[in-house]
## 1
Amino acid sequence: MNPDLVAIGGFVLLFVLMLLRVPIGIAMGLIGVGGFGLMGDFGPALKLLSQSPIRTATEAGFGVIPMFLLMGAIASASGMSRELFQAANSFLGHRRGGLGMATIAACAGFAAISGSSVATAATFSAVAYPEMRRHNYPQSFATGVIAAGGTLGAMIPPSLVLAVYGIITQQDIGRLYIAGIIPGILAASMYIMTISAIAIARPNYLPPGQRSSWGARWHALRSVWAITLLFLFVIGGLYGGMFTATEAASMGAGGAFVIAVARRTLTRAGFVECLVKSLRTTAAIFTILIGALLFGYFLTVTQTPQKVTQLLTGLGFGRYGILAIIMLMYLVLGCVMDAMAMIILTIPVVFPVITALGFDPIWFGVIIVMTVELGLIHPPVGMNVFVIKSVVRDVKISTIFFGVIPFVITDLVRLVILIAFPILATYLPERMG
Amino acid sequence: MSHRPGPTARLLAALELFAAWLLAAITALTFTSVVLRYAFNWSIPDSFDAGRNLLGIAIFWGIALAAYRGEHITVDLLWSALGPRARRVMDAFAGIVALLCLAVFTYTMADKVLSTYRDNVQTFDLHLPVWIFYAVAWVGLALCIPLLLLRLWRQLTRPEAGEPAQHAALR
């Protein structure tokens, strides 16, 4: 059979199945095994089905996903998000736009213990939104800040999306996490600068809150020191080569559990709920991972990545021109898909192009996560926007999209900065132990 | 007013709790292993193999339960633009495709369990038979078939009941 025809047919069928709401992982697995069988024989294709999924599910390195999920769930259930917000608010809340800045700072702190954008957005919709509204912040701004702050969950380590990128491209997850630190801090700083600029341009738009005394500030800091120390220990251990990414995740989850139990902020029922939530998300992610790895065999036998690489490099746009096309594709895909699905579906095809063009795979991981995270807040299908809408019921979707506009512009500027200065992402991983 | 969950919901909640506690066990095993390595230069025998095989069990059981509750990641672009009747048709189609795929997967996975048994594959330290872990994982996968049938039946006969996740007993 003509491999090009099978490849095109496979992709068309895959998108049709996905549009008909067949779970993405199952659609990818079906096309992967079916296409592999069509190109050769169905005997080896079924053999593949008997071996690849169990190998994926029992790969020790992939344990990083459920354990970091558990860490985030425990941190959230034990009220650490509220404490982070209170601490940030005590230092920043008295400025114009200070509550927005505090929300971003707290989102960044929460992102350091939770790897999910959606979880970060959902958590702060409940924690920060009422406080901002109480201080007469406009609905659009309050929700826009939370939607943008939520995206920090995928950039600041531990990040689920970066872990999945590492699994698919066989890059070291620890190095990817370390690479995300400076861009993550840059993201939070630029969001805060954006809020500051809005507050200067429209002084009455974002009223200041009450100034906290230094006593209140130290009191607020006391409640977050343990989780800050845990993050530094986990990431420091990764950076220093003390732990693998999976071991770091277990230290993070175990440490968060010990802190929550010691502070009596986690009940038994709450812990069970954390386990169940983590299991559910793990199962959903692994289903698409298993499907993606099966789909990868289909791509290999049809030589799709090589052909796409040839096609794109033959266009004569230069490496940055091709990078721009790829990123544009992600922005468009972000209109219909969530970040995880986009990464899993496209990276097997896009990654060989990137390496053939001589880009650093770790740097590209950071760039691609930033790009797909933009999809979480830009219309028409911004996942974070929908999550906020599900928590804050009296706000219109269009109001939230209006509120995120300044942050989308900030994100685009940040992407340009990171493309111009790759060292921002590669400096720390190059110095890892 | 609170409703007492039915026997199916209670059974599923129990199965989910089993898989969820496996996650706790894997985390505790890895955590303890790291602590012992640095504190006493000693590691728990088979902690690596046990951890990864337990992870496989938790994931396969989780996949089955997620399939029943409709929690797998999907593209809802077209679905959300349709009316209730068309949505039901689309859900039924997706359910049938998922059921067929998982049935084939369960069949091929049984082959893997048997070949692991025949090849006498063992863990590294304690020489535990690996096929037992695979068999337990397979049970979770096999569970998918009746669960997806049950989901399909519910979707076709009681569409107004919504997703099972909305009334599953968790505690």
## 2
Amino acid sequence: MGPDLTWYLAVAAFLFAIGALGVMLRRSPLIVLLSLEIMLNGANLALITFSRHHAQLDGQIFALAVMAVAASEVVVGLGLIVAVHRRKLELDVDKLSMLRG
Amino acid sequence: MGNVVVWAVWIVAAFACLGSATAVVSFANPYYSALSLIGNLGSLAVLYLLLSAEFVAAAQVLVYAGAVMVMFLFVIAYLGRHIDAPWAGGPSWQALGAVAAAGALMVEIVVVIGLKASGRLADAPDITDAFGSPRAIGELFLTDHLLAFEITSIVLLAAAVGGVVLGSHARGDEPAPPSNTLLQEEVPPLR
């Protein structure tokens, strides 16, 4: 056997924290989206670790569903970024604070 | 011998994973960030393989590192140089608060997991070879989790329609007049 499952969970926690840091620190919406992907992947790693721990596949099913949701979220997010860019607005999440367009 | 190999692979994958995640957050150029995220997803797939989640690892490489990241790279190439982002910006208390909040999140996760599961995580139960195989996953998807499977298809359809609606624009919409209402401060000059 390799490392304990605890180590995998530690990596998952680190990934989630790094992603959260990116979401809160960066101002470019593209990098915010990329950091969100990191957060989702940290959650996925925890799901798969616990699926191994319980020797049940439901956690992996959940991880696959998370992957599908992440793909849809990327589609909508990138569409929004392109739409904002087309209106010649600055791509900066601190300045895009109004919903009215 | 086998132990050492597994440990070595784990250490390389885990550190590549964390290092590339840090790189994603810290690069100023989104293009480099996206490329580092591909490395992050690849090393995560290795970790999934070590956890005997073969199908999820394959899906990770195909869906994430393949399809999603290609979409990201296309959009970054489309936007060109308009997206070079300043690293952080804003008042410095914002950055400090962000670091504090992320640290608090991580401490919270570690404490909760440590309290609830620390003693029992050491011994992972034995599993058969079929664990994590496409056959087992497919059977579960079409029996126990059929509803989730169908709802996923609807979510993907909605996202595709939303992407088309957001991406398309009516004729005469371009060049769009600068709309003052979206900006709190002043409108950037039109190029």
